[in-house]
Specification:
Layout: H1 4-7, H2 17-27, H3 49-77, H4 85-111, H5 128-133, H6 138-154, H7 157-163, H8 167-195, H9 209-226, H10 233-247, H11 267-271, H12 285-300, H13 302-316, H14 328-344, H15 355-363, H16 368-385, H17 387-392, H18 395-417, H19 421-436, H20 439-451, H21 466-487
């Protein structure tokens, strides 16, 4: 069998850049849990800078959001805990150093290029305040998530759940998550622009600045899509948003407060006592019990999240590229180890497949390893420099990056998947259920109904075994319902309090 190095051809031998990138994907043969080397197994291309930059912007925004949510929730939940912005930034920097080196550069870059990077579990961010108020402990939660994730990956549960999720259900999930995420970011930009003080801005009230940024973003994104350069949308649109905000007079709102340096990397500083770091000490049995339902919920949400990311690769990669598609089970393994190790050294992130990296990488027709190495270097550099974090978390930059790099592509992919009437029916039920409850329960219920022919393709049940059709979907549905009832996720919306 010819190696990648022998089959590689220079870009000048192809009629277009797109054909060259297609050929690169088709000849790659990643070595699973073996050393992959640049030149021998993959190459660096300038397109790899796009997902690396997009992933860096996205993860800074997500990590900062997670740590601020923990800081606010734990401060409210515990009498002796007082955490603020400085704590959140320092913990974010811890997350951006050690895990980036071990699980981005080394794991996905060199030793298993089919495992997507372990990033952030975005859908869990709104739940963090509830997790803290329920008496959970970040380290206990991380250990449980890691253990459950390893069990699921060992028994190939991740890929099994992906195969049991039809295009209709997956499309509906993507549409709902994309739409709600987009609306959230639009609201964030409008809230930010409306809060700008008219007393400090020469032009008066700047509530319309957010509308201008969003309008220009739509035009730029549409143009990039028109010319086939949509993979440039995150850096281009983020820079445009930054310039418009500065020109519009909002520069006073951008504060550089993070100093250059390395955060405290001693785990005992973060977890060793109740008067420094997280101020919680090591977790006890009660912390593990309180964290249990949230850990189950987080791992249950991995499969639809991973599915959506793999779909982006399948939609944008050419044929005969199965060997470079992300492996769901290997990604789950890496996410599990990264969850435990990253939190043990002082972090607090809730991990999942890295969407702000893999989606732009798929659109740019690039495999995982080269961009992962570049991203890891960028993330570590930003963590040390400090001040770039202040720019990346500024609302117009952060929200636009997430809007054009994640949520709009999710909506487009979801629509693309539901062209058939049977698929659109399953997608509609999935979206409706998500609106009534939440995306996890919607995925579980729609998958159960779809696999049994109650919605969607009526021929689908004939292709499935009894275990795939009834046992697994029903077990997942029950687990999701019990976990949600345990932690009160249906309260106060439906007045069903937590029973835990």
């Amino acid at each position: 069998m010819s190696s990648y190095k022998k089959m590689h051809k220079p870009a000048t031998e192809f009629s277009s850049r797109s054909e060259y990138l297609d050929h690169e994907l088709q000849i790659m043969k990643p070595r699973r849990f073996k050393l992959n080397l640049p030149g021998r197994d993959f190459r660096f291309e300038w397109e790899d800078l796009v997902p690396a930059l997009a992933g860096t912007l996205g993860i800074i925004a997500m990590y900062s959001s997670v740590m601020m949510a923990w800081a606010e929730g734990l401060t409210e939940a515990w009498d002796h805990v007082t955490l603020g912005k400085e704590f959140a930034i320092e913990v974010s920097r811890v997350e951006m150093l050690i895990p980036a080196l071990l699980f981005v550069i080394l794991a996905s870059g060199f030793f298993n290029p089919r495992a997507n990077l372990a990033g952030n579990h975005g859908p869990m961010i709104p739940l963090i305040a509830t997790i803290a108020l329920m008496g959970a402990h970040p380290l206990a939660l991380a250990i449980l998530i890691g253990v459950f994730g390893l069990l699921l990956s060992f028994f190939k549960g991740g890929s099994k759940l992906v195969n049991l999720t039809s295009k209709g259900v997956a499309g509906g999930l993507l549409i709902f998550l994309g739409f709600t995420g987009a609306m959230g970011q639009i609201g964030t930009i409008q809230t930010w622009s409306s809060s700008l003080s008219s007393d400090t801005i020469a032009l008066g009230s700047m509530g319309f600045l957010g509308l201008i940024i969003l309008g220009v973003t739509v035009l730029v994104y549409s143009y990039l899509a028109r010319i086939g350069k949509r993979w440039l949308s995150i850096p281009v649109c983020a820079i445009v948003a930054l310039l418009i905000a500065l020109i519009g007079g909002a520069g006073f709102d951008l504060q550089f407060t993070t100093e250059m340096g390395i955060p405290n990397l001693n785990p005992m500083y973060w977890w060793g006592s109740t008067d420094e770091g997280w101020m919680l000490g090591l977790p006890n049995a009660q912390h593990f019990i309180a964290s249990l339902p949230f850990a189950i919920l987080a791992v249950a949400m991995w499969s639809p999240d991973f599915l959506g990311h793999r779909i982006f690769q399948e939609m944008n990669y050419p044929k005969k590229t199965e060997k470079v598609l992300m492996d769901v089970d290997d990604t789950m393994t890496m996410c599990s180890f990264r969850q435990m190790v990253g939190t043990a050294v002082g972090g607090g992130n809730i991990t999942s497949s890295w969407g702000t990296y893999i989606i732009p990488a798929a659109i740019a027709k690039r495999p995982i390893p080269a961009g992962a190495i570049l991203l890891g270097i960028m993330v570590m550099a930003v963590a040390i420099l400090g001040s770039p974090m202040d720019v990346a978390v500024w609302p117009p930059v952060r929200s636009i990056a997430l809007l054009v790099g994640v949520f709009l592509p999710m909506i487009e992919a979801g629509i693309e998947m539901i062209k058939k009437s049977s698929a659109s029916q399953a997608a509609g039920i999935c979206v409706f259920t998500a609106m009534v409850t939440n995306p996890v329960l919607a995925w579980a219920l729609a998958m159960f109904l779809d696999n049994n022919g109650l919605i969607g393709d009526k021929e689908r049940p004939k292709t499935l075994s009894v275990v795939d059709r009834l046992v697994i979907p029903l077990a997942i549905l029950i687990i999701c319902i019990v976990a949600m009832l345990a932690v009160g996720m249906l309260y106060p919306k439906y007045a069903i309090p937590a029973f835990l």
